[in-house]
Amino acid sequence: MHRTAMRNLLSWKASPRRKPLIVNGARQVGKTWLIKEFGKQHFKTVAYINFDNNQRMPHAFEGALSPERLIPMLEAESSVEIDPSTTLIVLDEIQEVPRALKSLKYFYEEAPECHVIAAGSSLGIALHNNSFPVGKVSFLDLHPLSFSEFLLALGRAPLANLVEKLDWESVKPFHDELIELTRMYMFVGGMPEVVSAFASSRSFSEARTIQNELLESYELDFSKHADASMAEKLRLIWKSIPSNLCRENKKFVFKRIRESARAREFEEGLEWLEDASLIQKVKRINTPGLPLASYQDDEAFKVFGLDVGLMGAMCG
Prior knowledge:
It is a single chain. By secondary structure, the chain is an alpha/beta fold. The chain is built from 15 helices and 7 strands. The strands form 2 sheets. It has a 5-stranded parallel beta sheet, sandwiched between helices. It has a two-stranded antiparallel ribbon with strand order 6-7. The longest helix is centred in the C-terminal third of the chain and has 22 residues, at 204-225. The chain starts with a helix and ends with a helix.
């Protein structure tokens, strides 16, 4: 599967000002696959460490956070000898060990020659809740597949290239076909597992089954990463998104969550979902001028899900 974010990773690798990189994004958008594929293609070895349900790593990061101390333990955990110039160090689900997040500062200051990438499915929440050394890391946000990436997954590379170039005269003869492919994308969306299954089977029902499974897993995550009270608020907000969008509201209406809902009661939940990359808040602007931020109305916004295909599944 082709991901355009691979270009960002190559630029990061080549940068003389390279810092440890944090790849952020919702669960199942393909962070781990992308990083491993990048390591396989562009490094001699990959030292991959997953912090999820890992009993050893919290203890490993309890002491000093110097790379000199940590690297031998990362070598033992990954069974890979780390050569700073040819090894990619991958710290997956790093939010499970907050001190591992903090260690990225020391990799930047004491071992800048190391290539370190960290990732996690709820990393945005962890970063929001923990003090983090500003300026010591770089960030890359990974989203579901774009329409062009969707075309590439379906084996339509020449058509994807025309779309990417915005060459409208060349695109014009393929108008009807592109409309049909756009309809496919609106249903299938860009979640990698869904796109992969659809590319193989061309089955819309199989795509929808996987989408429903992903939606169920996201709701289960609410209870895993939030307390009972917050988890219930998250479910209410999550389920209200389609009803808010399908009405002619000019902004997100909290009473669509429940009749007695107030903004202050659910603002933290919206922030949690945004940090988890599960929603996007799109603010209204008063005037279409630049910079847009100067004209935005912070009190008026709409809430969209992370993927158009999942939104379709939520709407049934």
